[in-house]
Amino acid sequence: MIRIFNHYVSRVGIILLLMEMLILQAAAAMTSLIWVGEAHRPLDLYFSALAFALINVFCMSTLGLYQQQGREDLRTVLARMAPAFVLGFALLSLLMHMIPTIQFGRAGGLAFVLGGVGVLLTRMVMLKSSGASMMADRLIVVGDGALARECLDLAASPCGPRRFDVIGCVAVPGEASCVPAAKVLPPGESLLSLARRHAATELVVSVSDRRSGAYPVRELLDCALGGVRVTDAAKFFEREASQIRVDSLQPSYLIFGGGFDQSFLRATVKRTFDLAASAAICLAALPVMLVAALCIVLEDGGPVIFRQERVGKDGRRFQVLKFRSMGPDAERDGQPRWATAGDPRVTRVGHWLRKLRIDELPQMINVFRGEMSFVGPRPERAYFVEQLGREIAYYDVRHSIKPGITGLAQVRYQYGASVDDAIRKLQYDLYYVKNNSLFLDLLILIDTVQVVISGKGAR
């Protein structure tokens, strides 16, 4: 993994993206040279090829082709590539009408064929190489308690960006074992010799009680000095799952772990991004919003806009604006409740507004007012904030920045409808609060497009 602006990105994913950018540019340049020939100026040729590559990489990103690479089969890759290239063709055609210097003659289809074949061959090579054991990182987990079990589950998850070969767990006295007995390594050998014998590249320390005499401080130091990477379990989850775990989180990790950029420069960049993204989406989605408003009125004649008090930055309350997706008397008893799957309060029009995330569009007004950001933790109702604040440690940390229309938790996890869901989403929110940057905002924006297209997580 490489860290770009505090966010961890798969090294394989970066290499794959750069290779496919070059392949797509080469396909576009070859097509232009063959069809247009010398009449095509070199600068126009370069920008045409670059536009072709960027549009197709963006479309592949929105279809999830740069997530979980190496974990999917060829059929799944093809199922994502086909609509991505169709979308790319539509966007490129539109761009060619807007910018005359971008041109491919009548052979634009050939560029897509050559580019598609090149990308597919690259993916086949990556799929084959990623299945090789030499591509897997070899881990030893220090500890065999509940946290060690979570580390094993994460390492074995098919949704992660990397493959791991877990050698086993080293039992630590005083911890109740929660891992399978077959995963516990036999005692009597130092951590360094164990790591060297099994060619381990990393030790993940999952010991919860680090003040006891059983904590192997000296052995871990020997491993670090001996060239074996030693990683805290909290850092392992942050790096591999974009989560900061609250069940085993120490305050010192938040205090000394870096991040939490609230500088004037970051605030200025974020506000500029908020205004630019919101204005662009408002203009592009204006026809959709007008149709949505008309459908709401035609269905039951009720109000179009729904206002509800939410908690924002520093605990300040504001009125969030959404297209109404439930009946006018959804909470006739005045008791706040979570939205559930197949909620009967949702109207027929509201079902589609929620599925396509159209109900969130009026929140652009909240962004223009400065009450929300485009990207950030989801704003919750005061009733739930008070409840969750009492039950979940560090819950109020998410209120140190403005809430967002979309966010890391919204694109990585389903719609929250319980305290347990709130804990899981908080782990993503804490990661975002700690590591937020323009780069991460752009990645979340691309993931949001994918969520909207697939309709995942809507209720």
Automatic annotation (TrEMBL):
<dbReference type="Pfam" id="PF02397">
    <property type="entry name" value="Bac_transf"/>
</dbReference>
<feature type="transmembrane region" description="Helical">
    <location>
        <begin position="78"/>
        <end position="99"/>
    </location>
</feature>
<keyword id="KW-1133">Transmembrane helix</keyword>
<dbReference type="GO" id="GO:0016020">
    <property type="term" value="C:membrane"/>
</dbReference>
<dbReference type="InterPro" id="IPR017475">
    <property type="entry name" value="EPS_sugar_tfrase"/>
</dbReference>
<keyword id="KW-0808">Transferase</keyword>
<feature type="transmembrane region" description="Helical">
    <location>
        <begin position="275"/>
        <end position="299"/>
    </location>
</feature>
<dbReference type="InterPro" id="IPR003362">
    <property type="entry name" value="Bact_transf"/>
</dbReference>
<protein>
    <submittedName>
        <fullName>Sugar transferase</fullName>
    </submittedName>
</protein>
<dbReference type="InterPro" id="IPR017464">
    <property type="entry name" value="Sugar_tfrase_EpsB_2"/>
</dbReference>
<dbReference type="GO" id="GO:0016780">
    <property type="term" value="F:phosphotransferase activity, for other substituted phosphate groups"/>
</dbReference>
<feature type="transmembrane region" description="Helical">
    <location>
        <begin position="12"/>
        <end position="34"/>
    </location>
</feature>
<comment type="similarity">
    <text>Belongs to the bacterial sugar transferase family.</text>
</comment>
<feature type="transmembrane region" description="Helical">
    <location>
        <begin position="105"/>
        <end position="126"/>
    </location>
</feature>
<keyword id="KW-0472">Membrane</keyword>
<feature type="domain" description="Bacterial sugar transferase">
    <location>
        <begin position="270"/>
        <end position="453"/>
    </location>
</feature>
<keyword id="KW-0812">Transmembrane</keyword>
<feature type="transmembrane region" description="Helical">
    <location>
        <begin position="46"/>
        <end position="66"/>
    </location>
</feature>
